[in-house]
From TrEMBL:
Associated pathway: Amino-acid biosynthesis; L-proline biosynthesis; L-proline from L-glutamate 5-semialdehyde: step 1/1
KW Oxidoreductase (keyword) present: yes
The protein's enzyme class: oxidoreductase
Chief localization: cytoplasm
InterPro entries: 6-PGluconate_DH-like_C_sf, NAD(P)-bd_dom_sf, P5C_Rdtase_cat_N, P5CR-like_CS, P5CR_dimer, Pyrroline-COOH_reductase
Pfam families according to UniProt: F420_oxidored, P5CR_dimer
Protein keywords: Amino-acid biosynthesis, Cytoplasm, NADP, Oxidoreductase, Proline biosynthesis
Lineage: Bacteria, Bacillati, Actinomycetota, Actinomycetes, Micrococcales
Entry annotated with the keyword Methyltransferase: no
Limits of the Pyrroline-5-carboxylate reductase dimerisation domain: 159-263
EC number, as in UniProt: 1.5.1.2
Binding-site list for NADPH: N54
Name the UniProt record assigns to this protein: Pyrroline-5-carboxylate reductase
Length: 266
């Protein structure tokens, strides 16, 4: 994989950077770029990685990982495009941005992989979905898979599903944190100290997620096991149904996928 350059070390870029370092990649095989000098200085001090200009990074890197906001992607590609060679692999983590869009801003024939990661990568529990561009070779896709595997699970999807991936696992952690916030608030309403409510909700979430992964049981089966006839869970679930929470999730995730498609305009 050689030298990896991370362009845009914000939330997601720093998450990938820290994961690569945790997985044993030497700091001298990584370079990062940042728009704001104070952010660059902060990251250099924290991770002992080199911060360079976008052009220097493009020239130094074998693998270029683009982690700027979708709205900043066209300008970045125009800046680094002339310095991207046929031996390079370009990996984009941006929501919405298609491999075709990236390829069209680079010299002909460049290898591109589109990835949708998520922030649990920060604790090595990420979920990343990959889609190769037109010129990406199988061993280059393997390189991208290896890069993302440093921070969690990796799967491959046809690119037409990437907007759905973004709506599910890309934005997904935010929906879960939102539900957690609501459950903690409810605990406080019920008279529970906030710290205790937070511990109860967090462990319940962790336990439920572990059950899903380790038992392989369908979530409906697991939910039914909790729902005693005439009991407390049935009373709660009826309220969620009355408030159309399930339908709200479907609408919310459709909106996320629509927004992802809109962002493909750059
Ligand atoms: N956050 C998340 O959970 C996820 C994010 N993503 C994708 O990751 C990308 C980054 O998102 P996120 O980390 O949240 O956003 P951030 O705004 O935190 O990070 C982007 C960083 O890139 C910097 N930047 C912008 N333009 C340039 C440039 N030309 N050269 C160098 N640095 C530049 C920004 O600087 P400045 O602050 O000055 O704008 C910022 O620090 C997005 O495309 C997003 O779709 C994908 C999955 C999950
Ligand atoms: O909100 C966003 O646009 C990014 C993409 C997926 C998660 N965060």
């Amino acid at each position: 994989m050689g030298t990896v350059a991370i362009f845009g070390a914000g939330v997601m870029g720093e998450t990938l950077l820290s994961g690569l370092l945790r997985s044993g990649r030497p700091a001298d095989e990584l370079v990062i770029t940042e728009r704001r000098p104070e952010r660059a200085a902060e990251l250099t001090e924290k991770y002992a990685v080199r911060t360079v200009s976008n052009v220097e990074a493009a020239e130094a890197a074998d693998t270029l990982v683009l982690v700027v906001k979708p709205q900043d992607m066209a300008a970045l590609l125009d800046e680094i495009g002339p310095h991207v060679t046929g031996d390079n692999l370009v990996v984009s983590l941006a929501a919405g941005i298609t491999t075709e869009f990236i390829e069209s801003h680079l010299p002909e024939g460049r290898s591109v992989v589109r990835v949708m990661p998520n922030t649990p990568a920060l604790v090595d529990q990420g979920m990343a979905a990959l889609s190769p561009g037109r010129h990406c070779l199988p061993d280059q896709l393997d390189h991208a898979r290896e890069l993302l595997a440093a921070t969690g699970k990796v799967t491959e999807v046809p690119e037409k599903l990437q907007d759905a991936v973004t709506a599910i696992s890309g934005s997904g952690p935010a929906y879960i944190f939102y539900v957690v916030e609501a459950m903690i608030e409810a605990g406080v309403v019920l008279g529970m100290p906030r710290a205790t409510a937070t511990e109860l909700v967090t462990q319940t979430l962790y336990g439920a997620a572990t059950m899903l992964r380790e038992t392989g049981q369908h979530p409906t089966v697991l939910r039914e096991q909790v729902t005693s006839p005439g009991g407390t869970t049935a009373a709660a679930l009826r309220e969620l149904d009355d408030h159309k929470v399930r339908a709200a999730f479907v609408s919310a995730m459709e909106a996320a996928a629509v927004r992802s498609r809109e962002l493909s305009g750059g």
